[in-house]
Design brief:
1% of the residues lie in helices and 38% in strands. The longest helix is centred in the first third of the chain and has 4 residues.
Length: 381
């Protein structure tokens, strides 16, 4: 572990680019279940991707195309960002951020950085520590979502460097590493591109989203929500997609037999990214320990799909039993004005949603009666 800084700038003040005005964000178009509403937490957050919350009341946000990492303080606790501060710029697709013990961890494509004492220095950031530079530098699916697991290790995915191909080494895996550095350890393989994962609050099992391959038509393969139940499991890529679809170029009839099928098939090409278990108490009880997924939206389908936040419900045994839209309206016909990229449960139990197309972070709150108090509200709505 060493200190090094090349190709990036720190110490920048409040973002100087012209942000999209909060009033131009069409939150009035977002459809939610009864009792919920959506508001703007911050605008002008260019290409907002993964989010991490600090106990000091600061939301940290990564980006992909912008190359920036942001700090959005809410010091007065009114659930509106006080400003947008650039913690670092000029990075290589720093999509992933995680917060732990007063430090901000940032994942570029080839390396993981750490900014110490960040809460006190976000307006004048410290020089970052390079924790690891052990990851491949290939750009295709190289951007990362990172998070600390219940074991205290930092989990870092490495996407396949292609649409579909044989993968070697760290490609097509989720890895974990010691916070102090050291070589990455492969946790699961056969994964095309996971840009979102979380751990079940009770069982501690790792769940993750995975984006299906392109160019097999509008309706196949599905994106996936997967569940890791043992170390070293193979989730099929590139030979098998969706648990039952052998790849026409890299698979054979029996390719799917030895792989782990998805816990839940998601929509084809919805581009499922950030996902979190709901661990708050603001939403009605039936949402607790259920899964919210940010679906970024299709790019190569004849009719667009995704561009929403979806909900996967689990039964008492932790099995996925349903998959439904929760928040939608970013897609109007074939025109999209925003693209959800991550979700995060805030300390008050509201749900934050990052939008890397509208450059915003939203907050979904619950204000109505619980379902048990209002029998006219159906769980299917």
């Amino acid at each position: 572990m060493h200190r090094l800084w090349t190709g990036a700038s720190v110490g920048l003040a409040v973002l100087s680019c012209a942000p999209r005005a909060a009033g131009s964000l069409r939150t009035d178009l977002i459809e939610l279940p009864p009792g919920f509403r959506i508001e703007v937490f911050a605008s002008g957050v260019e290409n907002a991707r993964e989010m991490a919350w600090s106990p000091a009341g600061i939301l940290y946000v990564g980006s992909r195309g912008a190359g920036n990492v942001y700090a959005l303080p809410d010091r007065d606790g009114d659930w509106k960002a006080d400003g947008v501060h650039v913690v670092a710029s000029g990075l290589t697709q720093p999509s992933g951020v995680a917060y732990r013990d007063g430090a901000l961890w940032v994942a570029e494509i080839p390396r993981v950085l750490r900014f110490d004492d960040i809460d006190d220095r976000y307006a004048d950031p410290p020089e970052p520590v390079v924790v690891s530079d052990a990851f491949p530098s290939r750009g295709h699916h190289g951007w990362k979502f990172i998070a600390f697991g219940p074991d205290g290790k930092l989990y870092v995915p490495v996407g396949a460097p292609c649409n579909v191909c044989d993968t070697l080494g760290l490609f097509g895996t989720i890895t974990r590493m010691d916070p102090g550095g050291g070589p990455p350890e492969i946790v699961a393989r056969g994964i095309r591109n996971s840009v979102g994962f979380d751990w079940h609050p009770v069982t501690g099992e790792l769940w993750f989203t995975d984006n299906g391959r392109d160019l097999l038509g509008d309706d196949r393969p599905p994106d996936e929500l997967n569940r890791v139940t043992a170390g070293g499991q193979d989730f099929g890529f590139p030979a098998c997609h969706g648990g039952d679809l052998p790849d026409p170029d890299f698979g054979v009839e029996t390719s799917c037999e030895a792989t782990v099928p998805p816990a839940q098939k998601l929509g084809p090409h919805v581009a499922a990214l950030g996902m979190r278990f709901y661990t708050g108490e603001q939403f009605p009880p039936e949402y607790r320990h259920q899964i919210f997924i940010a679906e970024h939206g299709s790019w190569n389908r004849s009719r667009k799909i995704g561009y929403r936040v979806s909900l996967v419900r689990l039964d008492a045994e932790g099995r996925a039993v349903s998959y439904e839209p929760f928040a939608r309206g970013w897609l109007q016909g074939e025109n999209a004005w925003g693209r959800p990229a991550d979700v995060l449960v805030a300390p008050d139990g509201s749900l934050l949603v990052a939008d890397d197309d509208a450059d915003a972070v939203y907050r979904i709150v619950y204000e109505g009666p619980t379902v048990s108090e209002d029998p006219t509200v159906s769980e299917d709505e």
